[in-house]
Every structure is written in structure tokens, then in C-alpha cells.
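Q: What would this chain look like folded?
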Amino acid sequence: MKTDIDTIEADITSCQHRVRALQAETIHTITIKPTGKVEVVDKERLESLNSEITRLEERTDHNSDVAGRLRAALAKAGKEAISDLIKDKNSSEQRMARYRELINQAVGTWLKVDSYMYDLSNIRTHPRVKGELEKYEPLIPIEEQNIKHLSEVLEEAQAIIADFQPTGLPEIDQPVV
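A: My prediction, written as C-alpha cells:
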């Protein structure tokens, strides 16, 4: 599966290959005199090539920086892609909801079964409800903290990825049509 960093690195690689191809093309804009002196024969074309080479090199440097920052941000959560962050955050949210649901089910069940001894004000003291509370309540803050951490990393990673400037060049492993 292709990650966010893979996409950026593929763009960088394509850009680097295009720069090398453009650099090779510059040879056609000059001539070497028998005296060894280099003379520009197509100045306009050479300037155009050099301008595009500079633009692509700047884009490569920028996107390399973006990839490095994204790698560092994802490493804070031990992940390799933004999609992994989203999956883990959703899983934590689902676990937390499930813990709350289990607590609520226990409360509801034992309120019905022992309604003569317990009501909403004291149901948390029922032995079975108390057992569920002891089992699941400590897990809720852990999931909340995990969700908070993943949300912060996700927000940072999304801000970084928004700074990515794709060149629009085809990937090098794809045939150019």
C-alpha cells in the first residue's frame, strides 16, 4: 500500500529524473569550438532549460523537507502513514464507546433486576456494576489520552502534507504516454 511519504518520494524521484534529463538537453544549446571555447548557440532555449531545472530543484528540496517533517511527525505516534493514525484514532474511539456501553448495560440490567434495592443514586455500589466499573472506567481515560495524542499528531501531519507541492510529473515506473 502506498503511503503519504511514498507519494512524496515518488514525486521527488520523478523530479530528479526530469532534472537529469533537462541537464542532458542543455548540451544541445552549446557548441565547443576547436579552441576549446564553449559558445551558446541557443541562448533562449538554454535559459528556459536552466530556469526549469532550478524550479524543479527547488521543488525537490521543498518536498524533501516536507517528507522529512512528515516522517518525524508520524514517528511521534509510531506510524508510517496518516491513514494509520486515522485507523488507530477510530479504533480508540470505538473501544472507548464500547467501554461506556458495557458500563451502561450493567447499570441498566442491574437496575431492572434489583430495582427493589437499587436506584440511580446507589446502583454504582451493586457488586456486579461495581465490577464492571472497576474493569472499564480506568480504560476510558487511557483511550481519551490516546485519542488526544493521535488527534494532535494527525493535525500536525495534515498541516505538513498540505505543504507538499506536487510537480505533476509522471512517476518514473509508469510509462509516459
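The CA atoms of residues 92 and 146 lie 7 Å apart.
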